[in-house]
C-alpha cells in the first residue's frame, strides 16, 4: 500500500471515529452552527432565534465563499510566480526602454552634476535651514539646468546619450530581470529553501543579477557617460561609434571596463531595491488574500489599484536604495570620465577615487546630482516595473 493510500485510510478512520461524538447531542452548539435546522420548532416561533439562524447561515456561506475566493487568489499568485525565463527577458527590456525615454533629460543633468567638468558651471547654491526647503531649491535648480541646456544647446541635448543609453538599458534590464527570475527559480528547487521565497533568497538573486548585468553592459555605460559629458562648444566625439573607436585606439580595450568595480559596488543598490520591492509586493498580496478570505470578490478596479500599488512600491524601494548607495554613482562617473592631471589619469582605482574626491571636494560632493537622480530613477522604476508587469502578463497569456 502506498503512502497516499495510507493517508486516505487514516483520514477515513478519523472521520468514522468522530461521527458518534458529532451526533451524540442533537442540541449541541456544534450542530446548531453547522446545521441550524436541527433547532426545535419552538425556537422558530421566536424572532430572535430566526435572526440567529439567518446570521449563522450567512456566516457559513461567507466562509465557504471566502475559501473559494482565497483559493482563486492563491492560484493567481502562483501563476504569477511561474513565468518562463524568456518572458522576463523581453518584458524587462521593454520596461527599461519605456522608463529611459521618459526620464532621459534628468539623466543628462544628473550625469553632468556628478562630473568634475560641469561641477563649477552647475554649482548648487541651494541652502536652507530645513530639509524640505533645501529639497525645493534643489528641485528648482534642476529644472533651471534643464532649461539652460535646452536654451543653449537645443532640445536634442536633453536626449544626449539616449542612443547608447537605450542600447545599454534594454539588454541591461533584460539581463537583470531574466537573471533575477532564473536565480530565484533555481534557488527554490534547492533543499535549503524548499520552494519558499525568503528575503535571503531575494538577496542572493539580486546580487547575482547585479553582478552579471554590470559585467555585461559596462562598456555601453562608459560610452554613454562620455557622450553626455562631451561639451557642445568643443565636441570630442561625433557619435557612439566614434567614441568607441577613439576609446579603443587611445586607451585600449581595458578602458571599456573603467568603473566596473564601482558598478559591482552599485549592485548593492539594485539588491536593496529588489528586497524592499518583494517585501512590499508580499504585503499587497497579503491584503488581497485577507479580502478574498472575507468573501470580497475582486473587481477590475481592485486589479488596477494593486498594479499602481506595486508600481509605487518599486519607486519607493528605488528611493530608499538610492539614498543608501548613491556615492558609488559619483565615483563610477568619475572613473568612466577618466580626467587627466599632469599627463596622468587622476583616478586610478575605486578606493583612490573615493579618497581624492573626499580630500579635494568634501563629503557632500558624493551626493552631487542626487536631486535629478531621484527625479529620474524613482519615476523610471515605477514606469519600468509597471510596464514589465503588464508585458509579463500579456506574454504569459500567449
Automatic annotation (TrEMBL):
<comment type="similarity">
    <text>Belongs to the mitochondrial carrier (TC 2.A.29) family.</text>
</comment>
<dbReference type="InterPro" id="IPR049562">
    <property type="entry name" value="SLC25A33/36-like"/>
</dbReference>
<dbReference type="GO" id="GO:0005743">
    <property type="term" value="C:mitochondrial inner membrane"/>
</dbReference>
<dbReference type="GO" id="GO:1990519">
    <property type="term" value="P:pyrimidine nucleotide import into mitochondrion"/>
</dbReference>
<protein>
    <submittedName>
        <fullName>DEBR0S1_33254g1_1</fullName>
    </submittedName>
</protein>
<keyword id="KW-0812">Transmembrane</keyword>
<keyword id="KW-0999">Mitochondrion inner membrane</keyword>
<keyword id="KW-0677">Repeat</keyword>
<feature type="repeat" description="Solcar">
    <location>
        <begin position="305"/>
        <end position="394"/>
    </location>
</feature>
<dbReference type="InterPro" id="IPR018108">
    <property type="entry name" value="MCP_transmembrane"/>
</dbReference>
<dbReference type="InterPro" id="IPR023395">
    <property type="entry name" value="MCP_dom_sf"/>
</dbReference>
<keyword id="KW-0496">Mitochondrion</keyword>
<keyword id="KW-0472">Membrane</keyword>
<keyword id="KW-1133">Transmembrane helix</keyword>
<dbReference type="Pfam" id="PF00153">
    <property type="entry name" value="Mito_carr"/>
</dbReference>
<dbReference type="InterPro" id="IPR002067">
    <property type="entry name" value="MCP"/>
</dbReference>
<feature type="repeat" description="Solcar">
    <location>
        <begin position="83"/>
        <end position="186"/>
    </location>
</feature>
<keyword id="KW-0813">Transport</keyword>
<dbReference type="GO" id="GO:0015218">
    <property type="term" value="F:pyrimidine nucleotide transmembrane transporter activity"/>
</dbReference>
<feature type="repeat" description="Solcar">
    <location>
        <begin position="197"/>
        <end position="283"/>
    </location>
</feature>
Amino acid at each position: 500500500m502506498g503512502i497516499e493510500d495510507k493517508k486516505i485510510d487514516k483520514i477515513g478512520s478519523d472521520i468514522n471515529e468522530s461521527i458518534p461524538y458529532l451526533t451524540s447531542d442533537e442540541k449541541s452548539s456544534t450542530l446548531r452552527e453547522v446545521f441550524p435546522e436541527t433547532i426545535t420548532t419552538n425556537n422558530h416561533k421566536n424572532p430572535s432565534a430566526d435572526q440567529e439562524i439567518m446570521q449563522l447561515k450567512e456566516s457559513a456561506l461567507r466562509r465557504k465563499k471566502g475559501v473559494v475566493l482565497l483559493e482563486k487568489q492563491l492560484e493567481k499568485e502562483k501563476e504569477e510566480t511561474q513565468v518562463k525565463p524568456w518572458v522576463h527577458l523581453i518584458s524587462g527590456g521593454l520596461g527599461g526602454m519605456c522608463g529611459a525615454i521618459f526620464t532621459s533629460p534628468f539623466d543628462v543633468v544628473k550625469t553632468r552634476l556628478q562630473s568634475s567638468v560641469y561641477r563649477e558651471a552647475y554649482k548648487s547654491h541651494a541652502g536652507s535651514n530645513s530639509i524640505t526647503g533645501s529639497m525645493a531649491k534643489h528641485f528648482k535648480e534642476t529644472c533651471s539646468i534643464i532649461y539652460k541646456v535646452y536654451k543653449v544647446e537645443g532640445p536634442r541635448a536633453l536626449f544626449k546619450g539616449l542612443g547608447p543609453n537605450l542600447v545599454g538599458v534594454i539588454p541591461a534590464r533584460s539581463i537583470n530581470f531574466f537573471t533575477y527570475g532564473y536565480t530565484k527559480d533555481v534557488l527554490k528547487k534547492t533543499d535549503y529553501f524548499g520552494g519558499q521565497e525568503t528575503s535571503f533568497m531575494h538577496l542572493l538573486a539580486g546580487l547575482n543579477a547585479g553582478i552579471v548585468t554590470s559585467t555585461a553592459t559596462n562598456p555601453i555605460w562608459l560610452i554613454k557617460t562620455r557622450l553626455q559629458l562631451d561639451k557642445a562648444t568643443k565636441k570630442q566625439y561625433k557619435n557612439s561609434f566614434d567614441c568607441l573607436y577613439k576609446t579603443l585606439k587611445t586607451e585600449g580595450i581595458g578602458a571599456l571596463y573603467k568603473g566596473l568595480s564601482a558598478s559591482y559596488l552599485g549592485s548593492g543598490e539594485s539588491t536593496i531595491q529588489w528586497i524592499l520591492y518583494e517585501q512590499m509586493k508580499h504585503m499587497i498580496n497579503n491584503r488581497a488574500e485577507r479580502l478574498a478570505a472575507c468573501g470580497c470578490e475582486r473587481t477590475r478596479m481592485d486589479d488596477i489599484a494593486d498594479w499602481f500599488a506595486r508600481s509605487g512600491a518599486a519607486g519607493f524601494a528605488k528611493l530608499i536604495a538610492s539614498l543608501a548607495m548613491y556615492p558609488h554613482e559619483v565615483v563610477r562617473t568619475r572613473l568612466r570620465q577618466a580626467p587627466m592631471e599632469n599627463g596622468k589619469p587622476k583616478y586610478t582605482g575605486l578606493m583612490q577615487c573615493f579618497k581624492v574626491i573626499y580630500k579635494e571636494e568634501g563629503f557632500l560632493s558624493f551626493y552631487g546630482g542626487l536631486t535629478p537622480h531621484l527625479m529620474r530613477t524613482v519615476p523610471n522604476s515605477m514606469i519600468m516595473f509597471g510596464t514589465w508587469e503588464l508585458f509579463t502578463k500579456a506574454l504569459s497569456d500567449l
